[in-house]
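Lecture notes, unit on protein representations.

Consider one protein chain, 364 amino acids long.
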Amino acid sequence: MSYDPVEPSVLQPEQLQRAVDDALAAIAKASDLDELKDARLAHAGDRSPLALANREIGQLPPAAKAAAGKRVGEARAQVKAALERRQHELEADRDARVLVEEAVDVTLPWDRRLEGARHPLTTLQELIGDVFTSMGYEVLEGPEVETEWLSFDALNIGPDHPTRTLMDTFYVAPPGSGLVLRPHTSPVQARAMLERKPPIYIVCPGKTFRTDELDATHSPVFHQLEGLVVDEGITMAHLKGTLDHMAQAFFGPGIVTRLRPSYFPFTEPSAEPDLLCFVCRGQSVGNPDWDCRTCGSEGWIEWGGCGMVNPRVLRACGIDPDRYSGFAFGMGIERTMMFRNNAADMRDMLDGDVRFTQAFGMEA
């Protein structure tokens, strides 16, 4: 007696072909890999019509399993082949799009990041050193944490002087340590006089510290240049000639200085050197048609302090003031650079902006 089983509808050729057609349409419609993943889950996943049809084969009698299995296998193979083809197409399309969208144009400038340059203060300090070594001076350095005695007492700055208060000087803990962050580079001069015998010809550029607020013309950390000469027969004329030579080296030929009487404990007599305005060269004074912003139409620019070394300082450092005399001078390096390079704001020197460094950090 023969047996002709009734197959479930999902195993009928028409139903299988419909499932294959739906799968192929969904695969062809997928426009990217994410949509293709959704089509794979819907038409080739565990809950897809073809997967459910495959499960029904186990319910058939042995005589019917082979034919049904062949039909389901061919249908699933069609869908699998279509998925692989579409996968390769979409991956190729994605790779081509990435090459376009994320391409690196090798013809673009490669050096768009600005290169740094040596800081203008470093350059100016080296220029100062070159000017003075060519005159036979020696460039000296000293510690930035200095003793109170070398910073004040050795320089004839008494205990009651206002510069020795916390309003002007940074003291190093603990209280009473006798150490300060040097408020000027003059301790280097005192060390030189204590350690050497005249003749002494030195300049001392370096970093100094004062309790100033940071603004366009002041900084709590700044650089200072000081010079010292101790020898036999030194006069104010030597000081004036040295300042004039330095002014021309920094600001150009024809620039001279003048001395105005002043007071500094370290020197006696003392003076404040003024620099002939290197922009108008004094021609804006009394000239209504020329308003010189550099000197305020006064013809001169203030440029530090100077004078003959006080005999008390020489004596405190072990030098005979009856035999030797000397002069000293000092000025701010930042202020000199502001004059020399027309830099309007001292804070620009501290910001680390490479554009400022490039503009002012070079010397011809």
